[in-house]
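Can anyone check this?
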Amino acid sequence: MNKRAIKSYPDTRMNMAVNIDSIATNPYIALGGLALAIVSILLAVYFYIKSKKEKIPCFEESNNTLIEGLSKSLDRLEIHYKNTIQERITVTKLAFWNAGRDTIDRNNLVHSDPVRVVCPRDIDILDAQVIQVSAKANSVSLNGPINDAETYYEIVFDYLDNRDFFVIQIVHKSPRAHGD
């Protein structure tokens, strides 16, 4: 019985070598291995991008002139805003958001060069305020107007998480149309 077990060992070893050789030369196995390698590389790139932490502050501006030159076309028409006659009133909305995956914290900002909205000298600001915030915990506020070499409003917030945003509305009058 012991001889028989020894005799069958080389046959099994030979069969295993033939099976491994046929697997290695099988084109379907080779294609499957290639597909697995490609999928693995794509998954590695995908998970790297998903796990990458970045702070990406973004903003967008929108202008809408509400009133322009109506008093010239209609006699005795007066448009008042805050008890002052206005010839042109434009509303500018500025949306700020964090497009990155990492939180933008107040401590990430440079204190000597704060985030701010700078207004050209020839524009009179009638009103500026935060009109929308994605989360009240962000504590967004405007400080200003601050008149230094230029008129600006400092934007203050505690933090902005991924996709957190706020919208600032500035009501102003200008002697020129936007973009002139």
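Reply from J.R.: I decoded it. The chain has two domains: 2-51, 57-173.
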